[in-house]
Amino acid sequence: MGDDAYACQGSRRLERLTWPAFQAAAQTCGSTVVWPFGAFEQHGPHLPLGTDALFAEQILDQVLETFPQEAPIWRLPLQSIGFSPEHLGFPGTLSLPAELLIRSIETVGAQLAAAGFERLVLFNGHGGQIALLQVAARQLRAAHPSLGVLPCFLWSGPKGIGELIEEPERSEGLHAGQVETSLMLQLNPELVGP
Ligand SMILES: [Zn+2]
């Protein structure tokens, strides 16, 4: 059934499925949803406000392309505004309350579990909300034991990637530094300012 759902719709984006295809997807063995999370915050004078959101979405889509077509994995639309209170002193930063984000994750996660999905991956591009997503994941798992919930952070992997960056940039330069600037130059060079 899941294979049919994928084949008819040809998309890993849940919002592009019809409701019967969504239902079939949810009931496929091993059905997994990935929900990308970004932030809307200052990234220095040279990177866009949506840097973390762009990374989460673009890296996720590139990874999903490597899966075999029959893999039962779909994605939700990007949550592009996150939890960034530490950047509110800069114009252009938009931030949601932690409780609101946690509640949203619990609410949507409960609905996915009720539909029959077995796993939810919270794929996060913003370092300032790692703990928040861990809390939401633990509460969601406790309330809905049938749903496996995995929060993960884009910059935590792959192994060994940190060695590409020299000190002190490796320890101190993460926000809008060499690492994020390099990735943006690779993915969207037109969005990097001087
Ligand atoms: Zn960032």
Question: What's the count of strands?
Answer: 4
Going by CATH, the homologous superfamily would be Creatininase
Q: What is the architecture at the second tier of CATH? A: 3-Layer(aba) Sandwich
Cα Rg: 18 Å
Q: How would you characterize the largest beta sheet?
A: 4 strands, parallel
- Work out the strand percent: 5-15%
* CATH class division: Alpha Beta
Helices and strands, in N-to-C order? HHEHEHEHEHH
Bound molecules: zinc ion
Characterize the structure shown.
This protein has 194 residues and is an alpha/beta fold. The chain has one domain (2-156): Creatininase (Rossmann fold, 3-Layer(aba) Sandwich). Helices cover 40% and strands 11% of the residues. The protein contains 7 helices and 4 strands. The protein has helices at 2-9, 19-26, 51-65, 98-115, 130-143, 169-172, 178-187; strands at residues 32-37, 73-75, 119-124, 148-153. It has a 4-stranded parallel sheet. Helix 5 (130-143) links the parallel strand 3 (119-124) and strand 4 (148-153). Helix 1 (2-9) runs antiparallel to helix 2 (19-26) and helix 4 packs parallel to helix 5. The relative contact order is 0.17. Residues 1-9 have low confidence and may be disordered.
